[in-house]
Amino acid sequence: MFGNGSISQGFPRFLLPIESSLGLTRDQMSLVFSLARAEGSVAGPAVGWLVDRFGARPMVFAGSITVGIGTILLSQVNSYWMLMILFAGVISLGKSAGLGQTLMAGVNQWFIRRRHVAMSALMTAFAGGGALIVPLLNESIQWLGWRQTLIWTGVGILALTLPASFIIRSRPEDMGLRPDGDPPVDRAAESSGGRQSRGSSSAEFSFTFREAIRTRTFWLMSVGAFMRVTVTNGMLVHIFAMMAERGLSEDESAAWVAAMFFLGIPLRFILGVTTDKFRSNLMLAGGMAIGAVGMWGLWLGPGIVGLLAFVIGIAVVEGITSVNWLMLSDYFGRARFATLMGFMSLFMNIGLFASPLFAGIVYRLTDSYWLVLAVFTPMYLVSALAFLLCTRPSPPTRGQRRWIGTETRAPQPAPSAGDGD
Questions:
Q1: 174, 359 in Cβ contact below 8 A?
Q2: Under DSSP, is residue 194 helix (H, G, I), strand (E, B) or coil?
Q3: Cα angle 65-165-77, degrees, rounded to a multiple of 5
Q4: The pairing of beta strand 402-403 with beta strand 203-204
Q5: pLDDT tens across 33-51, in order?
Q6: Overall average pLDDT of the 144-169 stretch
Q7: Which of 4, 111, 175, 242 could be stapled to 118 by a disulfide with Cβ–Cβ 3.0 to 4.6 Å?
Q8: Which of 58, 60, 157 is nearest to 101 (CA)?
Q9: Dihedral sign, CA of 127, 128, 132, 133?
């Protein structure tokens, strides 16, 4: 909650004071945020592979140290290049390695039947960080200044995340346990022909990496996620400047943004835990359509009505985020979840890099965000259409079930040539 609230949702609050203090232009600051988002996405496949290979625990430890120390050092920058290196390089890499997809991959390893509740709880914590930390950062910047605020932010990240890294365990199998708290596998009964109970959570279909990327579903999901993160990231980086363009003060802007994230707290949990009762692709399509209405509110909506539409619409988009990753896990299994999530981030990288930079350049040229919002709003509708077409793929044709963690397999036909990871 604290790490993601400070870095992902909270750092846009530093845009205007750092810009003013260092004498930078809006597109220069936009490039910093663009590179930060892009660097995290480029590292995604490597992070995913490392998590699947070594587990979440060492990644959380290393990422926490990197983010905490990097944030403290960021408070001392006096040049554009040092800002670029520390924020777009060090902090972003640490956040990607330890505080984002790694945590989701770890939770995904511990739960199958109750995955929706567990993953929704984690994603709710991410949203809670935006609701709770953004107002604190706003007050601290006004009273202490942005440099002192960064120091205390880095100290807070180290104090909260390092102890957690010693408690986290990567997989239940590492402790002789199984997902969902199921009893250990009785190997003696298994070898004598006994069967796993029907309610077992350890036996599941799990796509290999190659099998997953050969499905149309994976690529439609990638398109939907690409459009979603492109618009959301570009808008959130410039959200305080966009609010200022509407005539809101810094305190008013912080209150509206905090309200948006606060509303996303129950939405992330409720939408996540109900995914197993409704079709996730329909939930995502509906959520992105509501997000388009929200973007219209910020673009053309009148006064308080437009702001309310924006806050509600983007809160729904933020709330539906957990459904996106739950669908990836439900459709393709948990064995290669981190790798698939990291591979998908390669395509998100383009949008994550381009959208904040595009918004900054357009603002410098036109002195307005009107054209930016005119482009962003229909992109949410494209995302809705992609998710609508994103149906569950057929199980792997090899017809095998993997016992996750033990690699013991139920009887299966011989695989054809070329099968495997």
A1: no
A2: coil
A3: 15
A4: antiparallel
A5: 777 766 666 666 777 778 8
A6: 91
A7: 111
A8: 60
A9: negative
> Within a 13 Å sphere around the CA of 296, how many CA atoms are in the beta-carbon half?
11
Beta bridge partners of 402: 204, 409
> What are the start-end ranges of the H helices in 300-336?
303-332
Report which of residues 279 and 55 the model is more confident about.
279
**Helix 370-388 crosses helix 216-237 at what angle (to 10 degrees)?**
160
Question: Considering only CA atoms, which of 44, 65, 69, 47 is closest in space to residue 56?
Answer: 47
Evaluate if residue 185 carries a pLDDT over 70: no
- The per-residue pLDDT for 71 is 93
- Give dist(CA 65, CA 68) in Å, integer: 5
- Cα–Cα distance measured from residue 52 to residue 67, given in angstroms and rounded to the nearest whole number: 22
Whether 411 shows a pLDDT value over 70: the answer reads no
Q: What value does the CA radius of gyration of the chain take, rounded to a whole number of Å?
A: 22
DSSP string, 26-87: HHHHHHHHHHHHHHHHHTHHHHHHHHHHH-HHHHHHHHHHHHHHHHHHHTT--SHHHHIIII
Tell me the two tokens of residue 186: 């009785």
Tokens of 197: 């109970």
* Owner of token pair 């943004």: 257
- Of 46, 292, 61, residue with least CA distance to 170: 61
Kindly compute the dihedral angle of the four CA atoms of residues 26, 31, 32, 37, in this order, to the nearest 10 degrees: 130
Report the length, in residues, of the chain: 421
- Of 3, 304, 313, the C-alpha closest to 130 is 3
Q: Helices 337-366 and 303-332 sit at what angle, rounded to 10 degrees?
A: 160
The tokens of 122 are what? Answer: 């984690």
Residue ranges of domains in the chain: 2-171+209-388
2-171+209-388 to CATH, choices 3.90.550.10, 1.20.1250.20, 3.30.420.280, 3.20.20.150: 1.20.1250.20
* pTM metric for this prediction: 0.68
Between 402 and 369, the more confident residue is 369
